[in-house]
Each structure stands twice: as C-alpha cells, then as structure tokens.
Amino acid sequence: MGNVEIAHEFVAAYNAHDAERKAALMTEDGRVEFPALNVSHGGGWETTSGSNAANLVDDRTIDVQRITASGDAVVIEMLWHGISKGGPGMAPAGERVEMENCIVLTFRDGLISRYTEYIGRYEGIDLLAIRGRMLERRQPTR
Predict the structure, then answer these.
(1) What's the predicted TM-score (pTM) here?
(2) Which of 26, 31, 42, 96 has the largest count of CB atoms under 10 Å?
C-alpha cells in the first residue's frame, strides 16, 4: 500500500472506531501531536486512548475534504464531527460539535510515524478545557 492508501485506511479505521486497526498503521514509536493544544504523545496512537475523541463524543467521524501527498507526508483536510457527550469543554450532551482541521501524516517504512493535527474552525468545543482533560488523563494514578 502507498502512503495515500494508508491514509485512507487510517481514516476508515477512525470512522469505524477501530483503535487496534489505527494503532496497527503506526510505528511503535509513532508520535501523536496537537500543536494548538501543546499536547504530544509518544508510543503511537494507543497512548491517546484515554483522552481521545471517543471519550468526548458519540458518532465521531472524519469527512475527508482533500488529500495531498508529497514525499513521506500526506495532508488530510477534513471536517470532523460528532455528538457531544457533554462535560467540561464540550457542548451540552446531544448537540453536534465539529472542527475543520488538517492532519499531516508522516510515514516511515510503510507506517505512520507521526500524526500532527492542526486545528482550524471549531464549534461546540472549548479547546483549553479539552487540553486540560487530555493532560489530566495522562497523569499516573496513585
């Protein structure tokens, strides 16, 4: 599979809510980064499972608007949307939330080695509160 096909497979796995399939597309040392939130996780996609969108929304979906590939990178322009579960930083439960974002996937040896998501327009989400929730979930339990 080429990088563009792997990018499409990643989106399909995300939309199917298949964490194992997503993780299998990343290198073991893969990084997941959200620069606007100043959040970066190492060790592939699975390290974000406690703080990912699945815990914030139901029916989360990436609608690909455009894909551009160059060298070892694929850029995905997308509309992400879901139904809020409520809670800090989110619209009331049951309301639609959405973001127009851009994902840059960097590849190494046929796998995603870096996932970087740049946040554009968003509705129904308070990014500072979400950042706090993401960092809180990463703290070790005592």
Answers:
(1) 0.85
(2) 26
